[in-house]
Amino acid sequence: MDIVILVSSSLCLFIGSFLCVSGGIGILRFPDFYTRMHAVGVTDTLGAGMILIGLMILSPDFLVFTKLMIVLLLTLLIGPTTSHVLAKAAFHNGLKPALNNKPLKQSKTKEPTH
Amino acid sequence: MLIATTLAIFVAMILAIIRGITGPTLYDRILAVNMFCTKTVLLISLLGFVMGRPEFLDIAIVYALISFISVIGVLRYSDTNQFKHTSAHDELPKKEP
């Protein structure tokens, strides 16, 4: 029974740490603000959730379990709200997404083929 | 495994700091600060378990609330250039024409 708890919590912690590191790489490598927001959303919800679930399995008594549950619920509430507000503020202030057909628009002004 | 997860969180925090320093726009910096705050909450929880003191979770709860309020405040300031309580989108259609 003890080794089941250890293995399952280690698996959850490993998945969470992998997602956090991949989100950290994604925030450096993605080309645009909105795609970077996708990487941060992954780390905010799934990475944090997995790490907190892994800590919940390890928790010694009920009070620690309840506090971890409060942190998990706060994280699940705060992350999507912040992402929504950030995307709305950026879009209202005129930050355009980097589209794939930007050189095609520049060539359209020179020679109108389409 | 707890210490390895702590090191992974440290790596993610360092990458978020690099994006926050070299971010092209304001919103990239706010995004990096938000990610840094979430990772700090996780780091405080993990350090409580590593050092055998789970009382650190209270600090993690308070830090999550403070980071949420700070991000919302900075975004409101960047949207309206003031900390008033009027919503920005009532005034946008008057400005446009």
Residue share in β-strands of chain A: under 5%
Number of domains of chain A: 1
Order of helices and strands of chain B: HHHH
Distance between the termini of chain B: 59 Å
Low-confidence stretches of chain B: none
- Separate helix tally of chain A: 4
Estimated structural class of chain A: mainly alpha
Shape of chain B: flat
Task: Give the biggest beta sheet of chain B.
Answer: none
The class by helix and strand makeup of chain B works out as: mainly alpha
Q: How large is the radius of gyration of chain B?
A: 18 Å
How many helix segments of chain B? 4
Described by strand count, sense and barrel closure, the largest sheet of chain A is: none
Name a few traits of the molecule:
heterodimer; A: 114 residues; mainly alpha; 4 helices; disordered C terminus; B: 97 residues; 0% strand
Topology of this structure?
The complex is a heterodimer of chains A (114) and B (97).
Chain A: H1 2-29, H2 33-58, H3 62-92, H4 102-110
Helix pairs in contact in A: 1-2, 2-3
Chain B: H1 2-22, H2 26-50, H3 56-80, H4 92-95
Helix pairs in contact in B: 1-2, 2-3
